[in-house]
Amino acid sequence: MSDTTVLQQEIAVEQQHVDRVYTRLAELRKNASRAEKEGYQLAGVGTFGALVERDAMVFHAARRRHALDTEYEGLVFGRLDQLDGATHYVGRMGIRDDGSKPLVVDWRAPAAAAFYRATPAEPLGVIRRRMIQSSREKVTGIEDDLLDPEAAPEGMRVVGDGALLASLAKATGRGMRDIVSTIQREQDDAIRSPAGGVTIVTGGPGTGKTAVALHRAAYLLYSDRSRFAGGGILVIGPSGVFVEYIATVLPSLGEDTATLRSLGSMVPAWDSSRVDTGEVASIKGSLRMRRVLERASHDTVPGAPTELKLLYRGTLLRLTAQDLEQIRRRVLQRGARRNEVRGHGFDRVFDVLWAQAREAKLSGLPEKKEFESELADRNDFREFLKAWWPRFTPMRVLRWLADPRRLRAYANGVLSRDEITALQGSFDALETEGPTIADVALLDELDELMGRPRKPQKRSKNPFHVRDGVQEVSTFADRQAAARTQGLQREDDYREYAHIVVDESQDVSPMQWRMVGRRGAYASWTIVGDPAQTAWSGDPEELDRARERALGTRKRNSYALTTNYRNSSEIFEVAARVIRTIMPDLPLPSAVRSTGVAPADVVATVAGLPETVRELTEKQLAEVDGTIGVIMPVPRQAEVAGWVAGLPERVQVVTALEAKGMEYDAVVLVEPAQIATDPAGVRTLYVALSRATQRLTTVGTKPGWLPKD
Ligand SMILES: Nc1ncnc2c1ncn2[C@@H]1O[C@H](COP(=O)(O)OP(=O)(O)OP(=O)(O)O)[C@@H](O)[C@H]1O
């Protein structure tokens, strides 16, 4: 029998099972829709208990239906034939037949673990592991691994030659590739690491750190849903572009209870993608900024009144600049938070005025309480208080640093003269362009330093309010939407996450670790990163300290990933040559796939560069089916974007910093020499060179940037 016939026969065998699964899925979907509808019909009953029951029913049914819908594609992707004669199918979610026998085991369930962990050396009771590829309900291919040939029963067929390599050769879409069917053993170890403590995953470019982190999030939600869905999982990535790139993976894993944030969008109200220069970012990221901000948070308000004069019952009451200064200092001592002690400041003002009024022996002076309320009723007095001690927003105070005199005063003795000079001007655009990514951590720090004014408690005034997003008078569609998004709705600055995943953690600055740590007081953590890819040019010890403090004394579990699944070996060889110039002993991952195509390095004249870049990008459009990343030094983004304007959407223009974590089928890297100007720049170049799966072209006006092997 020919190989093709055997393959077709085996596909037909699997198709039978897959058909059963989809038939069952259709039934389950119908049941869920029915339950949802019945839930709504309970509306007529009208008691509070019935309403709660109805909402719970609708919510669960809608969630179930949503899960069934999102997992439709490639639902079954694996089969295990075991020594004990049993056969298990592994898939994106668990499905049972109507007699409760499993038709598919969820990939995260213990029974599926052998699918990822079994090897010929340690078959774990598995004779044959089969990967099933399909397109919607149709099985299209099979790849087998015979793990225990001696135990194989007669007639057991083995087809295909490796699902992993087949999957790696596929073109990249805009979102991250789904690896659930080809997770490798060392990755699986990290994914199933204990739920508590801190799981640390390191590995070079393309080793699947991001993929592991996201699958781990899905695994945790599966293994202890009430804990992790209840508290929520926060996933942090370096940039907005990256967060968009990974956003598709979580729902496709069947999970919708994770919150994704970039470092620039951790603080509500800001969604920053603006970057500082490396030098400025490392100063703003240093823990010493806390001292600088502390001083700012206690300073006088620009333009605030320097004295108070009040005519009270014909007598002049007066607070001099010195009096006011004394009150401010006294109230703000011992780490008091300015917004929280505002009331104390006002009390002291009343005290001094009251003492003066008594001393003046005013006739008809009322009791102190009344005296205070008389003053509080006066517009001029209220205006004074508001101007002298306003409610501070972090942004208002951060803007003070744009004033060179203030910056010098706050940073004096904390930052060096050169550092202060470097910072000057870096806060100027706050007003017009909003904060940079590094500023966001400073805003968060200021928020902590100053505290928040206490808000008067609001009563819920809407008797028809059932739950967030659901009113008693609402449509069917409202309820469906609300049921689906419930669980995603947390307060704006929620801080009680059950788990925090930090991707590209090597780029989290000390100040950012403080910001992230504030959201993780009750969390367990997964931290993934590669120190060789950091753009941080500040003090590495300070970085370690800040990270350790954020993670606290929780137990650490460490994992190292060693295979690069992204780059062709030809591409990774170029990246490796670059990083070895500064880290000669760095253990590098091995790239498993060869395309036989060597990267190209093109030299252009300054005048000819725009046209050359465009031509090279067009050439890649003809050569690969998927995405093309055009990567350049940060300051040249707008210029290079103009050169490739109007090309199809699969051409994406990103800076070398934004390229972090991203992946493209082809990369056109512009002016590599301009990126690698210092050690942090060399590490950034290493990142940029390791983004492509199939083709890499470097192009610039300065030859000789690539070290000889
Ligand atoms: N087990 C696997 N099966 C199939 N593809 C995989 C596997 N592991 C990783 N990949 C693919 O390899 C590529 C790199 O993965 P990922 O982005 O997670 O790596 P990374 O370690 O985070 O990389 P970097 O540090 O360079 O950002 C992705 O396309 C991912 O889908």
TrEMBL record:
It holds the Pfam family UvrD_C_2. Residues 182-568 form the UvrD-like helicase ATP-binding domain. One of its GO terms (biological process) is recombinational repair. GO terms for cellular component: cytosol. Keywords: ATP-binding, Helicase, Hydrolase, Nucleotide-binding. ATP binds at G203, G204, P205, G206, T207, G208, K209, T210. Gene3D superfamilies: P-loop containing nucleotide triphosphate hydrolases. It comes from the Bacteria. GO terms for molecular function: 3'-5' DNA helicase activity; ATP binding; DNA binding; hydrolase activity. PANTHER family: DNA 3'-5' HELICASE (PTHR11070:SF45), UVRD / RECB / PCRA DNA HELICASE FAMILY MEMBER (PTHR11070). This is DNA helicase IV. It comes from Actinoplanes derwentensis.
